[in-house]
């Protein structure tokens, strides 16, 4: 079957090729990857459909097809492995015309029609005679229902082809890493109703993908299935396809699977703190953000954690999981407990230079793919993060503050003590600061949250030399030591000198990082030389550190100058710095979680007008993205040049700490925080510019629940306590609780 050519007259053009002219060509990513960072994918996934649920993720073309030859990122993934690299729908080899496609969480639907087509016998299927509807859901694998309907007055014969393949590429190969080991072959076996792909990896693990068709196809082979249909007028045929990735797949009909997934999503929302305001797009955006975080839930050894983001970071990252959990502590605190428990399980117990591990260190990244398991990439169990360990301590106290779950802290106490001892050892090793220099030659060059190789630089563009002591890491460590002291007192345990170390670190931050113009420098090069580069990092010091008021004010003022503030948010690096690039991963882009942290710092230190401006800009940016899905980052283009933020081409979505940023921003603006045992403080509440009132339902603190209403008035934002369930005191405060 072939599409009939377009016969209308149109413009004709000619492209001339002069002698000696050459054609530009893309260079494979593996050919120029810098040493010291994870492979950065090329191309763009901005227009891709991305679904995630139950540990399985899908990246597809806009119409729902998977074709890794056409778009390398597309595929069905599980545990860092691409289990489906091709899944194409054609009508006798002709692509149908996509009319519309939409998604809601883990559910995708699309509708197509046919172009005018000629059958092999010469008979023509008229254009738009057929309507094809695709309904897809991720449950325990992928489940899809295709309906093919004939709306022509005459019977129509059509061949529906479903091309499938599984290459079992490791996610690092998809991202551009060129594997060194030989690739084992993929075995494909076709039966009467399905195809089974089997891959025995170099790591000794057998991975399988099973594709089942119902009803059985007219013919089937290793490359796919063919249905020869003859449809009477107004007749509809339903074809079901089920894909499982090594585990038992779905057995229920597609509508029942969709209903179950929707029910599970609604249960999650009902159990979380409920947000409602008078601006409906913001209500939808909060719900989307919470469901995006839910979609990233992943189980390991019976404990649940939040994966960092799809498709590149669909695994456990220490820093990301802790920040995400802290952001969502007012909304769904059990997510933070899961992160703490999983990271405690994988906490390092000995020194291992190959993985940048040291006793007490919390993992940076865990991977389960083939290349990680055979050691071709170092990230199978990798500890090259300078900030995950202090954040582990901060997050434990944050969980305690919101839940009052002292038993969890006591269970984690050996891990908390080991983390504190790592912090103390690092301070001693680097002359009073916490600094990093990778030990693994294959590890990350930069080990803060800005971990691309070119992220930490001088104003003239030179890269800073290790050991590097980042300003925000000193703030994290200061907060971690103080949190450890308080938790030790609660548990009746010694604090191992943490209180005195915290006092010394607080003084050293002001002495060595303070800067009159910037507030604080970006870092210390080689652990001693200040690098006065204007960047977003000091905002984290305002969030968790203890800056002097004058220096906090200096940074707050600097952050909103035009070279740092794009209008959509504060850039990672000022545009006045050599090496700035609005499309740079950490060298000029805007990260939602970074701005959420800065907003929290501004609120904590009383810069409420700036916080309100930043919060409003943040929300306006979030609402500008399709379906209100907040991506990992976006470009740093000035707002005056764009009606919407410029997408970053390979930004993950859903992405955990970006999705969690919106609920965190709202809780921060409303000023709700624990202020002691069974006490909730509401501090200087404010509303975004587009909102007149907000209601929070079932906000939980230490086992109690409270309903609150916030309304804009002539004298500011008024608060009403509409209901309290349990033992909880509500106080209004002018000072941000510690």
Automatic annotation (TrEMBL):
One GO BP annotation of this record: carbohydrate metabolic process
Boundaries of every Mannosylglycerate hydrolase MGH1-like glycoside hydrolase domain copy: 333-621
Annotated Putative glycogen debranching enzyme N-terminal domain residues: 52-241
Any Pfam family matching the protein: MGH1-like_GH
InterPro entries per the UniProt record, alphabetical: 6-hairpin_glycosidase_sf, 6hp_glycosidase-like_sf, GDE_N_bis, MGH1-like_GH
Superkingdom: Bacteria
Gene3D superfamilies hit by this protein: 1.50.10.10
Protein name: Glycogen debranching enzyme
Organism classification: Bacteria, Bacillati, Chloroflexota, Tepidiformia, Tepidiformales
């Amino acid at each position: 079957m072939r599409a009939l050519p377009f016969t209308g007259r149109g413009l004709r053009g000619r492209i001339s090729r002069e002698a000696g002219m050459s054609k530009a060509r893309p260079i494979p990513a593996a050919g120029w990857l810098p040493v010291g960072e994870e492979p950065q994918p090329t191309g763009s996934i901005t227009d891709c459909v991305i679904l995630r649920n139950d540990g399985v993720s899908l990246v597809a073309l806009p119409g729902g097809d998977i074709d890794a030859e056409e778009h390398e990122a597309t595929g069905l993934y599980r545990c860092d492995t691409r289990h489906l690299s091709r899944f194409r729908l054609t009508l006798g080899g002709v692509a149908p015309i996509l009319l519309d496609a939409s998604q809601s969480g883990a559910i995708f639907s699309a509708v197509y029609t046919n172009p005018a087509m000629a059958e092999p016998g010469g008979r023509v299927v008229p254009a738009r005679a057929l309507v094809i509807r695709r309904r897809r859901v991720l449950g325990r694998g992928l489940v899809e229902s295709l309906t093919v309907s004939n709306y022509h007055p005459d019977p129509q014969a059509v061949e529906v082809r479903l091309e499938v393949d599984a290459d079992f590429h490791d996610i690092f190969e998809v991202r551009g890493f060129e594997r060194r080991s030989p690739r084992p072959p993929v075995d494909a076996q076709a039966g009467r109703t399905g195809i089974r792909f089997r891959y025995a990896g170099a790591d000794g693990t057998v991975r399988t993908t099973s594709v089942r068709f119902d009803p059985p196809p007219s013919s089937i082979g290793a490359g796919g299935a063919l249905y020869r249909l003859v449809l009477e007028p107004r007749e509809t045929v339903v074809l079901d396809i089920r894909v499982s990735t090594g585990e038992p797949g779905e057995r229920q009909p597609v509508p029942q699977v969709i209903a179950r997934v929707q029910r599970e999503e609604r249960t999650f929302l009902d159990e979380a703190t409920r947000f409602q305001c008078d601006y409906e797009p913001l209500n939808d955006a909060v719900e989307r953000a919470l469901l995006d975080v839910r979609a990233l839930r992943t189980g390991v050894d019976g404990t649940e954690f939040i994966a960092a983001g799809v498709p590149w970071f669909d695994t456990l990252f220490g820093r990301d999981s802790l920040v995400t959990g802290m952001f969502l502590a007012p909304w769904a605190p059990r997510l933070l407990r899961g992160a703490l428990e999983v990271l405690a399980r994988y906490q390092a117990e000995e020194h291992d230079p190959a993985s940048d591990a040291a006793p007490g260190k919390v993992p940076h990244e865990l991977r389960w793919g083939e290349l990680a398991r055979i050691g071709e990439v170092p990230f199978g169990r990798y500890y090259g993060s300078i900030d995950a360990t202090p954040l582990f301590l901060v997050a434990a106290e944050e969980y305690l503050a919101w839940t009052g779950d002292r038993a969890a802290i006591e269970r984690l106490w050996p891990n908390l003590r080991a983390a504190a001892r790592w912090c103390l050892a690092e301070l001693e090793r680097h002359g009073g600061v916490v600094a990093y220099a990778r030990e693994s030659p294959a590890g990350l060059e930069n080990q803060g949250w800005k971990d691309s190789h070119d992220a930490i630089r001088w104003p003239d563009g030179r890269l800073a030399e290790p050991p590097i002591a980042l300003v925000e890491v000193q703030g994290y460590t200061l907060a971690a030591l103080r949190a450890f002291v308080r938790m030790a007192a609660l548990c009746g345990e010694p604090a191992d000198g943490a209180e005195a170390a915290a006092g010394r670190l607080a003084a050293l931050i002001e002495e060595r990082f303070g800067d009159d113009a910037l507030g604080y420098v970006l870092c210390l090069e080689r652990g001693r030389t200040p690098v006065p580069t204007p960047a977003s990092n000091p905002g984290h010091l305002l969030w968790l550190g203890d800056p002097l008021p004058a220096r906090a004010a200096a940074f707050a003022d600097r952050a909103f100058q035009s070279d740092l503030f794009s209008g959509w948010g504060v850039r990672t690096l000022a545009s006045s710095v050599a090496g700035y690039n609005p499309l740079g991963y950490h060298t000029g882009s805007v990260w939602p979680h970074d701005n959420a942290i800065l907003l929290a710092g501004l609120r904590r230190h009383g810069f409420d007008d700036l916080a309100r401006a930043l919060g409003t800009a943040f929300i306006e940016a979030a609402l500008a993205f399709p379906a209100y899905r907040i991506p990992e980052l976006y470009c740093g283009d000035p707002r005056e040049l764009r009606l919407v933020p410029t997408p970053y081409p390979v930004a993950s979505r859903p992405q955990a700490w970006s999705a969690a940023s919106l609920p965190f921003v709202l809780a921060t603006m409303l000023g709700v925080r624990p202020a002691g045992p069974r006490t909730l403080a509401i501090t200087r509440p404010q509303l975004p510019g587009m909102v007149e009132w907000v209601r929070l339902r079932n906000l939980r603190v230490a086992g109690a629940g409270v309903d609150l209403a916030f309304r804009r008035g002539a004298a500011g934002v008024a608060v009403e306590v509409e209901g309290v369930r349990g033992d909880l005191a509500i106080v209004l405060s002018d000072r941000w609780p510690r």
